[in-house]
Each structure stands twice: as structure tokens, then as C-alpha cells.
Amino acid sequence: MSLAWDYPPDRYHGTDGEVSAWLRRGSEPPELRFRSGGTCEYLATGDRTEQRFGLYRWTFGDDESGPDPHFHRSISEQFYVLSGEVRLFDGRDWVTARSGDFLYVPEGGVHGFRGGGGASMLLMFAPGGPREDYFETLARGEQMSEEQRDAFMTRHDTYWV
């Protein structure tokens, strides 16, 4: 049986394996708390995964929040709803996603998300860019001029449509 694709090149060249796993306990507090009451937990940041991916648990506050439609040029983004309802923009329409629903957005794909009522989802970026500065700056609510905001968004591979 022939596969349509091959595995990537080996990254580990040892013969016995190694002790290299790490665990983030569910009891650890979220790294970010937003003014909306939402939180963001850094499950696996790009610097921890050698830039392979970044994985975050996003929990919304009571009121609806989330970014308008946008796209990324260098990273894909994935959404997996854990609980509640999250509205996801799939490039055509806003759709309501519920527990177990998954949305994949390749590089250049227009998307957005909105949630409230304590809904939660996993948010993954691949490769694992440094999204933490993006989240932390927005959480602080820093005032920026239009030029500063444009430069910030460009630095974080975020382009509004």
C-alpha cells in the first residue's frame, strides 16, 4: 500500500529514546485573565514545542467577545470547541460550533471567533509562532495609535479584512 505522503525527516537520531516529555497540570492557573472575564491557558507554546505548534485553552467571559474576520500569512489556526457555543467565521459565514466541533483554517484563510457564557475551546497555531505577546498586549488593553496598531498586527501576522 502506497501512502500519498511521506513522514517528515527524522528529528531524533538516537537509538534508545530519551526522557524529554513535559506535563502542564490542569490545576495550574491561567496565564492570562482578560477584562471580559475570559482566560487563556498556555498549554504548549511555540518555544516549548520547537516552533512546531502552539496550543492554548481559551475560555470566554460572560459577555461575547472575540476578533473580527482576519487571516494569517505564515500560520494555520485550528479551533476545537470544548464546551458551550462558539461562533466561528469560516470565511463565508458565522457558524455556531458546539462541544466536539473542529475548524481548520490554513494560511491565508479568513476566519474569526466569538464566544461568551464561559464557553471554552482549544486554539492551535502551526507552526508555533510567538502568540503570547499578542495575547498579553491585547489583555493589557494598551492604547495604540492607528500606525502602532497596524505595526503590532503585522508583527503578529494578523491582517483584518
Please, could you describe this protein's structure?
12% of the residues lie in helices and 32% in strands. The chain has 161 residues and is mainly β. The protein has one domain (32-160): Jelly Rolls (Sandwich), CATH 2.60.120.10. The strands form 3 sheets. Strands 1-2-3-10-5-8 form a 6-stranded antiparallel β-sheet, with helices on one face. Strand 1 (32-33) and strand 2 form a beta hairpin. The longest helix has 10 residues, at 131-140. The protein starts with 31 loop residues before the first strand and ends with a strand. 20% of the residues are buried. The model has no long low-confidence stretch (mean pLDDT 96). It holds the Pfam family Cupin_2. This is Cupin domain-containing protein.
Topology diagram in text:
Blueprint: E1 32-33, E2 39-44, E3 54-59, E4 70-71, E5 76-83, E6 85-89, E7 94-98, E8 102-105, E9 112-115, E10 120-126, H1 131-140, H2 146-155, E11 159-160
Antiparallel strand pairs: 1-2, 2-3, 3-10, 4-11, 5-8, 5-10, 6-7, 6-9
Order of helices and strands: EEEEEEEEEEHHE
Under CATH, the topology can be stated as: Jelly Rolls
The stretches of 5 or more residues where confidence is low (pLDDT under 50) are none
> Biggest β-sheet, characterized?
6 strands, antiparallel
Choose one word for the global shape: globular
Under CATH, the homologous superfamily reads Jelly Rolls
